[in-house]
Amino acid sequence: MSALKILITDDHSMIRKGMKLYLQLNLGVMSVQETDSCNTLLMALKKDHFTHLVADLILSDGNTLEVIPTIRNLYPDLKIMIFSMQPAEIYGKALKQYGVSYYLSKTAGEEEIIKQLTNFIHNQASTETENNFPDHTRNPFSQLSPRELEILHYLLKGMGTKEIADSLNIKMNTVSTLKSRVLEKTSCNNFKELLELATLHNVNY
């Protein structure tokens, strides 16, 4: 247990403190550090060695999906759990592509949280872990690719094409193409419909 070193990344201090207490009081993991953004997450990983990462999807400076590929390349042995309010069926497919198989909802009860954290820190891949990513084909957002989900995040924030291109360091025509794909896959004709659909399916930003 002493070899475990866990990093918690969430932009809400109370969430970080609560998760830290769960790990320390219920699972005996005492080596736990906190960060609050994608940037500070990457800085912490560069500065220290961690065995496990517990991170929210939506942070103050971006979407965790944007940095997971980099983290995977630089720290392939790091175990990652997503702890989020976002619907698992929407992000499950994208996260699996990046080798992330642990997803815990912030709405889970105490017993479920402890159970899933125990599986996570002991690297136990059970059938329950697979069930964390339900395949809800009726959800219009579930077929979006990782990049399209990143674009969706910025669209819901009300950002324009140039702003998104600058944030993701990609070309504006690439952003335009991805925006079109998001609208097409979700069967939306415009941003207003997309926003209403996101609200309906509890997709926030």
Report on this structure:
The chain has 205 residues and is an alpha/beta fold. It folds into 2 domains: 6-131, Rossmann fold (3-Layer(aba) Sandwich), CATH 3.40.50; 146-200, Arc Repressor Mutant, subunit A. 50% of the residues lie in helices and 13% in strands. The chain has 10 helices and 7 strands. It has helices at residues 13-27, 38-47, 68-74, 88-97, 110-121, 127-131, 146-156, 161-168, 172-185, 191-200, and strands at residues 6-9, 32-35, 52-55, 58-59, 62-63, 79-84, 102-105. The strands form 2 sheets. Strands 2-1-3-6-7 form a 5-stranded parallel beta sheet, sandwiched between helices. It has a two-stranded antiparallel ribbon with strand order 4-5. Helix 1 crosses helix 5, helix 7 packs across helix 9 (172-185) and helix 8 (161-168) packs across helix 9. The longest helix has 15 residues, at 13-27. The protein is globular, with a radius of gyration of 17 Å. The model is unreliable at 126-131 (pLDDT under 50).
Summarize the structure.
This protein is of the alpha/beta class. The chain has ten helices and seven strands. It has a five-stranded parallel β-sheet, sandwiched between helices.
What best-fitting shape do the alpha-carbon axes yield? globular
The computed structural class is alpha/beta
Question: Which segments are poorly predicted (pLDDT under 50) over 5 or more consecutive residues?
Answer: 126-131
Q: Count the strands?
A: 7
Query: In order across it, which strands form the biggest sheet?
Result: 2-1-3-6-7
Quote the beta fraction.
Answer: 5-15%
**CATH architecture field of the largest domain:** 3-Layer(aba) Sandwich
- Largest sheet features: 5 strands, parallel
N-to-C series of helices and strands = EHEHEEEHEHEHHHHHH
Examine the coordinates and then state which fold CATH places here, giving the name of the CATH topology of the largest domain. Rossmann fold
What is the end-to-end distance? 35 Å
